[in-house]
Amino acid sequence: MDQLSRAKIIVPVLLAAVVLFSVPAFSQQGAAIERGLQAGTGAGVEQVLTQTTDIAGEWVVRNWQSVMERGQGSALGDYLGIPLNEAGRLRADTFDAGEWSLQDLQCRPHPVPYQWRAQGGMRISKEIDPVSRELVAYHVAFVRSLDRAIYMDGRPHPPEWAPHTWSGFSTGRFEGNDLVITTTHLKESYIRRNGPTMSDRAKVTEWLSRHGDYLTITTYIDDPIYLEEPFIQSVTYKWEPHTELEYFPCTIVNENISDRIPHKLPGKNPGLKEFSEQEGIPYEATRGGAETLYPDYRQKMKTMKVAPIKAAARP
């Protein structure tokens, strides 16, 4: 038997040995290999052998992005950059910050898309099956949150009528070296702390991309109730292995008990124009909407009336 004939026999045998005796890094990739073997192809093998991204660890965010959202929050009436529709605008206009005093909402965690832009660090840990050594789920924790599981084992999302939670139900898959997360079954909650809200019909997709010690998270909110088109944002974290995530120190306080539900009636919110008046921006432009996200809107703004700039009110 010549060398070429032996190579034709040995190479397939070695490839089969790698596939059969190597434990896949992720269960969904293991399933891909199995399908490839059944089809008589090597599909799925390359993904396992080249998947090297590990996003687990302690991460911190620097105040070079989203400083306003991490601090006191955006100004009342500032909907810049958010593709709100009429329903979303009305929902935001009726917001009252006093709702944070309600017992049911005092300790609510930040919603999934806002959490990445909140104050504090973040921890990602792995849940590994002790027998198969396969990745079952990632678990994400923030300062103001409980555990958020991102299932990697291929399980389906629950039916539409299943309960909704603050963290929703998340599944993940790798596309190249990017982790893609799909989240459904979320409760209605804010996407900014000054009123703009996503409904419980929202679907959130996230891309986690690691570049050395930096992790970039891109969020994509698709909400048929409050948004004209998907709302896209990104933020970057830095790997800090020597940090420790703080505990969640929230305790409900029974103070100023009242039978009033904090809210503003439609058309009765006196503070909506303060932002535009203080910044010298046309009020119409601060109202959000898909149109305001595109460069051509600048030309339209030139035709709008701008109120004289007013100094911010001081107590």
Summarize it:
This protein has 315 residues and is an alpha+beta fold. It contains 8 helices and 11 strands. It has helices at residues 3-21, 27-38, 45-50, 67-70, 86-93, 112-115, 274-279, 297-301, and strands at residues 57-61, 122-128, 135-142, 148-151, 169-175, 178-184, 189-190, 197-198, 203-211, 214-222, 231-239.
Helical content stands at 10-25%
Please provide the ordered H/E string of secondary-structure elements. HHHEHHHEEEEEEEEEEHH
Detail the poorly predicted runs: 18-27, 41-50
What CATH architecture of the domain at 57-75 and 99-239 do you see? Beta Barrel
* Main sheet characteristics: 9 strands, mixed, barrel
Main sheet strand line-up: 1-2-3-4-5-6-9-10-11
Describe this entry's structure for a reader.
The chain has 8 helices and 11 strands. Among the domains are: 3-50, no CATH class; 57-75 and 99-239, Lipocalin (Beta Barrel). The longest helix is centred in the N-terminal third of the chain and has 19 residues, at 3-21. The chain has 315 residues and is α+β, with helices and mostly antiparallel strands. The chain has a 9-stranded mixed beta barrel with strand order 1-2-3-4-5-6-9-10-11. Strands 7-8 form a two-stranded antiparallel ribbon. It is globular and about 65 Å long.
